[in-house]
Design brief:
The structure is a single chain. The protein is of the alpha/beta class. The chain has three domains: 38 residues; 335 residues, TIM Barrel; 78 residues, Golgi alpha-mannosidase II (Immunoglobulin-like). The chain is built from 15 helices and 16 strands. A hairpin with a 2-residue loop joins strand 14 and strand 15. Helix 7 packs across helix 9, helix 7 packs across helix 15 and helix 14 packs across helix 15. The termini are far apart. 42% of the residues are buried.
Length: 479
């Protein structure tokens, strides 16, 4: 019921109106005004307004998932070098042969609700998932290409819809990674110009090398039956419209590898972005004329000297690969991951930490364990991460500093990695402006002494947290 009127009567009333030419024009005019106002609203949103949540979040989850999880790093009994999600390219696997993996992709253990809860419990504020990676396989139902989870796999269901629902349920922002240029399955998509077949001693590797040199990185004639312009118009642009139209509010569009891109191609994606007024994008659509809203250093944390004042986000794996790979056991410790997060926040950046789910839909146990340990630290120390800004003081050899501006001054959060043996910490550039110093976790107050070298803080003999103990310093006025 709508204000006492049944839905059937309301539909009948609208149909009557549409039979009247004047009323029909008025209805179309109203719709046009509403649509136009939405576009104006999107244009009026400043970059700072769109970036506000992202700058406060500081921590997100990257998810690389696709049919490459079935191969898990090996093809025909041979392990293929490099990251798991690049197996088709690095192994120079023919299109028809690679597509057979989709017949084994049946993630019956996929639980989007559990995924999002793990991210939330770890202290992550947003998720970015590979809606389509370079192998061209879409995790969503697509009318632009049959190479998608609904049409090409026994699972037969859209994987993004339940994830979008779970994100809304738990208040997590959702973003989509989309490989807009490289696509090794949909004809016309670009391919990285690697002229050698790495890790797979294919009997025909010499022929493959000759073909890739002559065909801009492609190794299978099936990849070259259409032009890149056709691919952009018929697959990439329509799919971006699909992912920005069918899943509610989308916070981030994470482009990747602008191989073969032109400004003309890049411009074709711009109208689709207007479907999401609050959306932010990264810097990988087409350099340099489409810089996006933030930079994306990969697998590294920038040095202070390399930062230029722009927003940035480090994306990084937990082990050595983005997509699931059985043989990769190079897992970073929880201590390293937590300290990476602190280090990145101390320089004003965000940390997008990757998970590579298995083909059945489960997270690797090693990832689950690390998420829990990160979450335990964040549960008591997240105040030192969320909504913080870069350190305003000199770099600390034994830890890191984040900060927040307050009405009366500034609050510093000192994360101590190496606990002092003499029970004294010296914080440079701070003297008599200090209001209070305390341990963030226990709220216990700490005594201090001013010196020519800075503020001396008297700390317990043993570090309360072996990974990183946070000391909160409230300062009056500006440093």
């Amino acid at each position: 019921m709508v204000s006492g009127v049944s839905e059937a009567k309301l539909v009948t009333f609208i149909r009557v109106l549409l039979k009247d030419t004047v009323m029909k024009k008025m209805l179309f005019l109203i719709v046009a005004v509403i649509y136009s106002s939405q576009l104006i609203f999107a244009q009026e949103l400043s970059r700072d307004e769109r970036m506000k949540w992202w700058r406060e979040a500081r921590f997100g989850m990257f998810i690389h998932w696709g049919v490459y999880a079935v191969a898990a790093g090996s093809h025909n009994g041979r392990e293929i070098n490099k990251a798991g999600e690049w197996i088709m390219n690095r192994g120079k696997i023919p299109v028809a042969e690679y597509q057979q993996y989709a017949k084994q992709f049946n993630p019956v253990k996929y639980d989007a609700d559990a995924w999002v809860r793990m991210a939330k419990d770890a202290g992550m504020k947003y998720i970015v998932i590979t809606s389509k990676h370079h192998d061209g396989f879409a995790l969503f139902e697509s009318k632009a290409s049959k190479w998608n989870v609904v049409d090409a796999t026994p699972y037969g269901k859209d994987l993004l819809k339940p994830l979008a629902e779970a994100c809304r349920k738990y208040g997590i922002k959702l973003g989509f990674y989309y490989s807009h240029a490289q696509d090794w399955n949909n004809p016309g998509g670009a391919a990285a110009r690697k002229a050698t077949s790495e890790g797979w001693p294919n009997p025909d590797s010499s022929k493959i090398d000759e073909f890739t040199k002559a065909n801009n990185g492609h190794w299978d004639a099936a990849q070259t039956t259409k032009t890149m312009a056709e691919y952009i118009d018929k697959v990439a642009v329509p799919q971006v419209y699909e992912i920005l139209s069918n899943y509610g509010d989308i916070a981030v569009l994470w482009w990747d590898t602008p191989t073969g891109m032109t400004d003309e191609f890049a411009e074709k994606f711009q109208p689709a972005l207007k479907l999401q007024p609050y959306i932010i994008t990264n810097d990988r659509l087409k350099r340099p004329n489409y810089p996006g809203d933030f930079k994306t250093p990969e697998q590294k944390i920038p040095n202070l000297a390399d930062l230029d004042g722009k927003d940035w986000e480090t994306c990084m794996t937990m082990n050595g690969t983005w997509g699931f790979k059985t043989a990769d056991h190079k897992w970073k410790s929880s201590e390293t991951l937590i300290r990476n997060l602190i280090d990145i926040a101390s320089k004003g950046g965000n940390y997008l930490l990757n998970i590579g789910p298995k083909a059945d839909g489960e997270f690797p146990q090693e990832s689950i364990e690390r998420l829990k340990e990160i979450g335990a630290w964040m549960k008591v120390n997240s105040e030192a991460i969320y909504s913080t800004k870069a350190s305003p003081i000199k770099p600390l050899a034994w830890g890191r500093c984040t900060s927040k501006e307050t009405a009366s001054g500034i609050t510093l959060y000192i994360s101590v990695f190496d606990w002092p043996k003499d029970g004294k910490l010296i914080i440079p550039e701070i003297t008599d402006q200090v209001v209070e110093v305390s341990l963030l976790e226990s709220k216990a107050k700490l005594s201090t002494t001013a010196s020519v070298d800075g503020l001396i803080i008297n700390v317990p003999a043993v570090a309360p947290n072996k990974i990183a103990t946070v000391i909160k310093i409230e300062v009056k006025g500006k440093l």
